[in-house]
Each structure stands twice: as structure tokens, then as C-alpha cells.
């Protein structure tokens, strides 16, 4: 074999090798997202970064179903408060991106605050108007 052709073949093998290495690195998060059932009274979605997807939500008074979904990459909670007092026995938590949970709560007509109580998430606030 002449030296020139040996060099060409080595180069081809080298390129093939690096191509395989790059393909092996191309992972990615492909965890299937949970989906919320249709017909919930209201739904809050966490979006990047550290935000609810709206500033104002509305819901009917009475026993209501609440959906809480996470499109952000960190854990979030949903707390409902009125005049600075948390509504007891209600807290929804989404752990990771793609999580979705449903809860129920009984609320009278009025204006409520939605909060996330994960440390450092005090900017996650929204208003819920129940009527
Ligand atoms: Cu949060």
C-alpha cells in the first residue's frame, strides 16, 4: 500500500469515529408530559422562569377543580390565599417539567391570591377572581 492511500483511509476512519461520538452525546429529555383532563374550572401553568402563565385567573364559586401543570424546569407549588391568609388544606405541587396535578377546593365568591411557596419564588403571584 502506498503511503498516500494509507493516510486517506485513516482520515476516513477518524471522521467516522468522531461522528459516532457526537451522536452518542445527543441525548435530550423526552419524558412524556402528563396531561390535564378537560373541563377543569381553572388551570394554572408554570412557565419559565419562575412564573405562572397569567396574572389574573377566574373561577366559579363553589366546589371547583383546579389543574396545575409545569412547563418550567423546577418544582413549584400552588397556594391560594385571601387577605394574606392561606386557605387551609390546599396545596398542589409539580415536581418536574411535564408534571400535571389536579385538586379541588371550595371557594366563596371573592378575590384571592395565588402563590408559590418554594423558597425564592416569591415573585410567583397571581390574582384569582371567584364569582
Ligand atoms: Cu415556584
Record the SSE blueprint.
Elements: H1 3-25, E1 42-47, E2 51-52, E3 56-59, E4 62-70, E5 76-82, E6 85-86, E7 92-94, E8 100-107, E9 110-115, E10 125-130
Parallel strand pairs: 1-4, 3-10
Antiparallel strand pairs: 1-2, 4-8, 5-6, 5-7, 5-9, 9-10
Bound molecules: copper (II) ion.
Specify the CATH architecture of the domain at 42-130. Answer: Sandwich
Count all strands and give the number.
10
Strand proportion, as a percent range, falls in 35-45%
* Radius of gyration, in angstroms, nearest whole number: 25 Å
For this structure, the CATH topology of the domain at 42-130 is Immunoglobulin-like
SSE order = HEEEEEEEEEE
Can you tell me the CATH class of the domain at 42-130? Mainly Beta
Uncertain runs: 10-32
How would you sum up the global shape?
globular
Main beta-sheet strand count, sense and barrel state: 6 strands, mixed
Question: Roughly what is the average pLDDT, rounded to an integer?
Answer: 84
Q: Helical amount among residues, as a percent range? A: 10-25%
Tell me the span between the first and last alpha carbons.
Answer: 87 Å
Q: Any ligands, ions or cofactors bound here, and which?
A: copper (II) ion
Oligomer class: single chain
Summing up helix and strand content along with how strands pair, one would put the structural category as: alpha+beta
**Total of helices:** 1
Question: CATH H level of the domain at 42-130: which superfamily?
Answer: Cupredoxins -  blue copper proteins
